[in-house]
Backbone:
């Protein structure tokens, strides 16, 4: 065993019994490189993070420029720091007027936590509604609104007053009442294996939340930043949330999350009590500098306009394979459905051996995750397709 890998197992907490344990030497564009020089095409973007590829030159340049100015100087919300301000301002230009105020945090789970607190504080209510098979993170609050009991049973009890409804069941929206603080939803359920919400359901949900004066939270931690074919998935569905959550691809490869709402709603965190939500490293200047450069690349090159076209290329090249029972997708967030978790894992392992990084879904181990960088080329997609087809052909 390589000495570094040995230390990995000895000194780092493990998240599963069998991590991939790829010792990464470098990363560039759509590829990772192992210490032996082997090249791996990253077909999942580090789990929907590296949407503009690994180490995009403009993102790296922005980080280096900020590095020469300052790192952490003060907890979030006290000092005027250019990277934070300019990122928040640019987002306000791209979002509806009702989503004009950002609170920066470090991760998706923290964005969920902040949003839940904000909704309870603003409405004065405590009931929260989520959906079965939803994934929102692994901290205690975010885990509470996850819709998979197997994931959280060992950590009970969690937050009280949580209801889980069936996605796309309009009849169940009657569960939303004047006692409900908020409804949190993924416009496309990610870890369930790419299950989009119906447009009619989302519109009915928006109407019900407005009728009952509860806040609608869109968790766009996986679907934001262009992956679905729009900069934000709510644009694709033409339904505006009261609170928008971002992370993953938002930081351009550095840790960054945000919950975004109106100034009217957000200001309640600043009084009675003051410092109603605080973070030391949220909105770190390096992360915000990277995020702003990343956002400008996505917007300037309209990368989201190519998501559907690239997804179509993948679908057309794989749809003839009988082993694939279904291809579910929303832009470049895709799931290849196989008949069993065992077959899917065998295919994933063969892909990895042949230099392609894919993955399964947390709640759907019989489906393969595909979420490549949005900058991926036609040639690189063809390379991935060749590897997948060979892996399927030779899988046990």
Residues:
């Amino acid at each position: 065993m390589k000495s570094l890998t040995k230390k990995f197992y000895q000194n780092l907490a493990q998240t599963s019994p069998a991590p991939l344990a790829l010792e990464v030497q470098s990363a560039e564009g759509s590829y990772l490189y192992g210490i032996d020089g082997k090249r791996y095409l990253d077909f999942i973007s580090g789990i929907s993070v590296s949407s503009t590829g690994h180490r995009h030159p403009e993102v790296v340049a922005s980080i280096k420029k900020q590095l020469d100015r300052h790192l952490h100087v003060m907890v979030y919300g006290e000092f005027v720091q250019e990277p934070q301000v300019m990122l928040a301002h640019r987002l306000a230009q791209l979002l509806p007027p009702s989503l004009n105020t950002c609170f920066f945090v470090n991760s998706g789970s923290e964005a969920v936590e902040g949003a839940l607190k904000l909704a309870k504080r603003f409405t004065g209510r405590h009931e929260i509604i989520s959906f079965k098979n939803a994934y929102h993170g692994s901290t205690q609050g975010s885990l509470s609104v996850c819709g998979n009991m197997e994931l959280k049973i060992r950590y009970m009890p969690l937050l009280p007053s949580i209801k889980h409804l069936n996605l796309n069941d309009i009849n169940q929206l009657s569960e939303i009442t004047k006692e409900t603080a908020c409804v949190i939803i993924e416009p496309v359920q990610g870890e369930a294996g790419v299950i989009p919400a119906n447009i009619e359901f989302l519109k009915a949900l928006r109407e019900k939340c407005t009728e009952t004066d509860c806040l609608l939270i869109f968790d766009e931690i996986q679907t934001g930043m262009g992956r679905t074919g729009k900069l934000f998935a709510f644009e694709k569905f033409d339904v505006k949330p009261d609170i928008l959550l971002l992370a993953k691809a938002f930081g351009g490869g550095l840790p960054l999350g945000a919950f975004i709402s109106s100034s009217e709603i957000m200001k309640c965190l600043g009084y009675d009590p003051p410092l109603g939500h605080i973070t030391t490293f949220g909105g770190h200047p390096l992360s915000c500098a990277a995020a702003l450069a990343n956002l400008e690349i996505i917007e300037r090159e309209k990368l989201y306009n190519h998501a559907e076209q690239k997804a179509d290329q993948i679908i057309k090249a794989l749809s003839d394979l009988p082993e694939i029972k279904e291809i579910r997708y929303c832009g470049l967030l895709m799931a290849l459905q196989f008949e069993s978790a065992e077959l899917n894992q065998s295919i994933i392992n063969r892909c990895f051996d042949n230099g392609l990084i894919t993955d399964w879904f947390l709640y759907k181990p019989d489906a393969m995750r595909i979420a490549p960088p949005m900058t991926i080329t036609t040639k690189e997609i063809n390379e991935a397709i060749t590897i997948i087809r060979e892996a399927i052909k030779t899988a046990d």
